[in-house]
Amino acid sequence: MSSMTMPSSAPAESRTGHWGRYALIGLATIVAAVVANVVVWAIGSALVGYDARFLPLASVGGAVVFTLVPAVVAVLLYALLLRIAANPSRVFTIVAAVVLALSLIPDFTYIPTVPGSSAGQTAVLMVMHVVAAVVIVGMLTSFARREGR
Fold it and tell me: Is residue 137 part of a domain?
């Protein structure tokens, strides 16, 4: 009777579990960033009051879309970094800080020229940028810490 050993599927299973957990964290990150900015939008609406001509804050839909799209891009970027970077958390945090800084430039340069804009509304936009960045970076990099990367 010959003895044959079957290759273990444990590594494949652990990779599948790894990406399954990442998918859940990615989805949770997107939802959390959107919800956080909806809350900021609502608080800003109560404190500042939005001019209907100022389209970025005219409705909560703007806050949702302008948070959802960058959050999805961030989740995909972090997934790529998990595959190719030796220290994905560090690289992602640096990229996110640069993107955050760049995203604030129009708030200082372009937004004040938009019809209906005000200093208060601009401040709300800036807070929303920071809140989204903190939620996204915090949640995604926590995945790598749990995975030991």
Answer: yes
| Residue 9, in any domain of the structure | no
Look-up of token digits 């005219």:
58
Joined tokens for residue 102 = 């760049």
Residue 131 CB neighbour total at 10 angstroms: 16
* Beta strand segments in 16-99, E: none
How many other CB atoms are there within 10 angstroms of residue 20's CB atom? 10
Residue given tokens 């030991």 in the structure block: 148
Number of structural domains (the chain) is 1
95: in domain: yes
Residue-range definition of the domain harbouring residue 69: 18-147
Between the alpha carbon of residue 24 and those of residues 17, 29, 33, 87, the distances in Å are 11, 8, 14, 21
Tens digits of residue pLDDT in 15-35: 456 788 899 999 999 999 999
Average pLDDT over residues 70-88: 96
Q: How confident is the model at residue 144 (pLDDT cuts 50, 70, 90)?
A: low
Contacts of 133 (CB under 8 A, 6+ apart): 96, 97, 99, 100
CA atoms within 13 A on the CB side of 114: 20
